[in-house]
């Protein structure tokens, strides 16, 4: 199957895929169809787009990569990332690119393996959570409140799609603005 000796470009492409596949914001966007019926194909395309961006531009800075990833999420998934994960993802990709460029392919492969284990241990899952009124035996009326929890490898996160009372636990939130954008924010 795979050749014994991989080129730095192939290893970098695998690294980008590993990083993006373990990015909770992207996985939530894909799982919930924020990119439409072709959300998974868009996520796969993002791997190629990011990899090509690095090869087309020399000496990229982390903030340039952050801007590029943010633009891709905005354009392809109508999602504005505001949870603090963008700098971490951009940094991982930048570091791996530099390591590939320096020929440190075994180090990058080790990081890819670690990310693959992280992915296998748990992908972000969206599960409904009872609102505080339901827990207290409240009425069965639908008052427009909905909360969802995301479980991922020991990291709990809540995804907010409609206005939720402030007593609900929240780490990451999504707001659907009137203009159609989805904003992901870190817990305040």
TrEMBL record:
Acidic residues bias locations: 137-152, 171-180
One BP annotation, GO: rRNA processing
Organism (species): Hemibagrus wyckioides
InterPro entries given in the database record: Pre-rRNA_process_TSR2 (IPR019398)
Role noted for this protein: May be involved in 20S pre-rRNA processing.
Coiled coil start-end: none
Family: Belongs to the TSR2 family.
Protein name as it appears in the record: Pre-rRNA-processing protein TSR2 homolog
Keyword field contains Transmembrane helix: no
Record keywords, A-Z: rRNA processing
Residue numbers spanned by region Disordered: 116-188
Keyword GTP-binding found: no
């Amino acid at each position: 199957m795979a050749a014994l000796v991989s080129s730095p470009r192939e290893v970098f492409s695998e690294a980008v895929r590993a990083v993006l596949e373990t990015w909770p914001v992207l996985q939530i966007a894909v799982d919930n169809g924020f990119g439409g019926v072709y959300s998974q194909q868009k996520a796969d395309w993002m791997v190629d787009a990011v990899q090509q961006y690095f090869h087309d531009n020399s000496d990229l800075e982390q903030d340039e990569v952050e801007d590029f990833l943010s633009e891709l999420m905005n354009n392809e998934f109508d999602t504005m990332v505001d949870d603090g994960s963008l700098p971490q993802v951009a940094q991982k990709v930048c570091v791996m690119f530099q390591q590939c460029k320096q020929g440190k392919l075994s180090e990058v492969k080790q990081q890819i393996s670690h990310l693959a284990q992280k992915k296998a241990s748990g992908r972000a899952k969206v599960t409904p959570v009872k609102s505080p009124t339901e827990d207290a035996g409240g009425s069965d009326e639908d008052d427009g409140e909905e909360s969802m929890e995301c479980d991922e490898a020991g990291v709990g996160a809540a995804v907010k799609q409609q206005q939720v009372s402030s007593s609900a636990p929240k780490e990451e939130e999504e707001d659907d603005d009137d203009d159609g954008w989805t904003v992901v924010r870190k817990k305040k």
